[in-house]
Inverse folding.
């Protein structure tokens, strides 16, 4: 009786599987579909199958069912039992797709791409549309996770006509996100296909300056491409831009200290801000009116906002003082949108608060990005003792290790007299000398042996003042480590033009603001002619003031287009999800007493 029941169950399962199967063609083979059976029943049926091909198909169906039920581990175990050579090409495509999906659950995009490189994938266009969509979707996800943005966009554009409803909308928005994240120099809008149209739209938006210019560029593109999917259904971020363009900015409050310890910083920021304002006027634009407020005389932020509202202010730029920024970041909301010129310690503030500053942490992450792009993996770190050094160290370490780098040594610099010992410790030179001395004692005679340093340090991340860097680089040379590349933050560069100082730092690479590296910039030349101090290290503050002015009307743009950037004087500016403006910087190197520009870091 039991045997009869098993036979009946087996026949039912076989019938269900056959009924649920799809056969794109006899040569590609039928595809498994999820039957009304459990994983255990499918696996039992596989053990009783009359042919290896049938057993493989049943196990493939069980593996897919486990994946759909959210059990990736069980799915992978079952899939390992499916011999690919016993599957027909269509079934191999199915199995390769499932293998890629499982790899993505483990955050392994390269493994997913390897699975999708199976020869059977050349038949994908012959498969049913739902299988083409499934394969194309995981392929796009893997390409994006692997940094192949353009290829991911192509994949999503390919499957777009096969999608409907919510899936079509999500894919549509994903295409725009991918295309909008491409650098301008990769946007080739010279083709008439859908991809060329997407690129043309992104190029139009990115090369337009003001919100009004962006809106005009979008409208012009839609008129020229009326049948393009993005013209028929404008991506959501661009719809938000249309709303922003209907709310022009007419008055800005500039809230900076005019007295006290930060007065000179406030003065440089104010002069840079107003220089950009006058440049906009000279260019024929209609910039917003500027209302000045002295933060050093504030009695309360509530009182300031009441007065600013009464004065018709639509946007506040400032304050600079960290305690005031911290105070604003803890409020549930602000009465006026505010671009603070410093950063709070917390990650999130009210939706009306944006934060911008010359954060050393940005530069630490920039060093991590550059060293990674240069193919380096093992870092040693030298930072000053104290809270500032700890912050820079933390920012570099988090970014470096999150992207697969390792840290093999760390030294906190303090007293110059300890520097030689610290570098010797970092490179384990004392152990080398001890080994040489031990060898001499064992041999009973003098042995010519030059100390050798450890070889696993590929570069040094340095955050230091010019004076410290002047001592560190020659000491590295003296301690047999002069050939180790040094990647530094801008703090090593005084912009003094002192050739002797630069000679002491020969070979050091550092990131720096465009303001100090691109001396031919017309606005910079005008500012330096009026305020010569803007050519030196104070120039970074003038650059920040210029960028604060240019950011003011474009905060909504950066928020709506999170992958877009503004090429500013203090760096290439983007925005995080927590509404903090972050910078990427160009690079230079000290070479024979001169500052030599290096190619920009690939994005």
């Amino acid at each position: 009786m039991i045997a009869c029941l098993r036979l009946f169950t087996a026949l039912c399962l076989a019938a269900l599987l056959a009924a649920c199967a799809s056969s794109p063609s006899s040569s590609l083979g039928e595809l498994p579909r999820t039957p009304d059976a459990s994983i255990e029943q499918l696996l039992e049926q596989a053990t009783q199958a009359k042919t290896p091909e049938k057993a493989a198909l049943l196990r493939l169906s069980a593996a897919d069912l486990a994946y759909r039920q959210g059990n990736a581990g069980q799915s992978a175990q079952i899939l390992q039992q499916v011999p690919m050579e016993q599957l027909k090409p269509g079934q191999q495509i199915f199995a390769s797709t499932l293998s890629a999906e499982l790899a993505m659950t483990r955050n392994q995009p390269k493994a997913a791409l390897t699975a999708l490189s199976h020869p059977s994938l050349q038949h994908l266009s012959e498969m049913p549309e739902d299988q083409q969509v499934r394969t194309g979707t995981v392929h796009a996800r893997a390409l994006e996770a692997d940094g192949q943005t353009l290829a991911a966009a192509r994949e999503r554009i390919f499957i777009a006509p096969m999608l409907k409803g919510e899936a079509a909308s999500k894919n549509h928005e994903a295409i725009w996100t991918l295309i909008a994240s491409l650098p301008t120099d990769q946007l080739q809008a010279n083709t008439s296909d859908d991809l060329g149209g997407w690129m043309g739209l992104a190029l139009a938006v990115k090369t337009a300056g003001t919100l009004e210019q962006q809106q005009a560029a979008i409208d012009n593109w839609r008129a020229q491409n009326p049948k393009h999917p993005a013209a028929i259904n404008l991506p959501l971020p661009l719809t938000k831009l249309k709303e922003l363009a209907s709310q022009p900015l007419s008055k800005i409050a500039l809230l900076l200290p005019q007295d006290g310890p930060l007065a000179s910083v406030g003065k440089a920021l104010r002069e840079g801000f107003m220089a950009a304002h006058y440049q906009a006027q000279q260019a024929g634009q209609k910039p917003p009116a500027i209302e000045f407020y002295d933060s050093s005389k504030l009695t309360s932020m509530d009182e300031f906002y009441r007065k600013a509202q009464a004065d018709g202010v639509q946007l506040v730029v400032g304050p600079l003082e960290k305690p005031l920024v911290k105070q604003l970041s803890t409020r549930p909301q602000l009465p006026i949108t505010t671009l603070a010129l410093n950063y709070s310690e917390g990650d999130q503030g009210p939706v009306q608060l944006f934060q911008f500053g010359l954060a050393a942490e940005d530069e630490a992450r920039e060093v991590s990005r550059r060293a990674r792009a240069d193919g380096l993996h093992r870092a040693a770190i030298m930072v000053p003792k104290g809270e500032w050094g700890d912050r820079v160290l933390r920012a570099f370490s988090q970014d470096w290790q999150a992207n697969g780098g390792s840290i093999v040594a760390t030294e906190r610099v303090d007293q110059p007299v300890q520097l030689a010992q610290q570098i010797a410790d970092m490179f384990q030179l004392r152990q080398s000398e001890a080994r040489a001395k031990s060898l001499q004692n064992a041999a009973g005679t003098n042995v010519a042996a030059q100390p050798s340093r450890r070889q696993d340090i590929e570069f040094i991340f340095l955050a230091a003042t010019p004076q410290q860097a002047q001592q560190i680089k020659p000491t590295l040379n003296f301690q047999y480590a002069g050939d180790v590349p040094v990647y530094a933050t801008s703090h090593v560069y005084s912009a003094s033009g002192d050739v002797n100082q630069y000679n002491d730092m020969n070979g050091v690479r550092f990131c720096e603001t465009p303001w100090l590296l691109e001396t031919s910039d017309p606005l910079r030349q005008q500012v330096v002619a009026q305020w010569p101090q803007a050519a030196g290290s104070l120039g970074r503050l003038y650059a920040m003031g210029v960028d604060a002015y240019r950011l003011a009307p474009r905060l909504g743009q950066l928020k709506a287009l999170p992958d877009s950037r503004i090429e500013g004087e203090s760096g290439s500016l983007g925005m995080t999800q927590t509404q903090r403006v972050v910078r990427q910087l160009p690079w230079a190197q000290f070479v024979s007493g001169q500052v030599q520009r290096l190619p920009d870091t690939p994005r």
About this structure: Residues 263-282 form the longest helix (20 residues). The first strand starts at residue 251 and ends at 256.
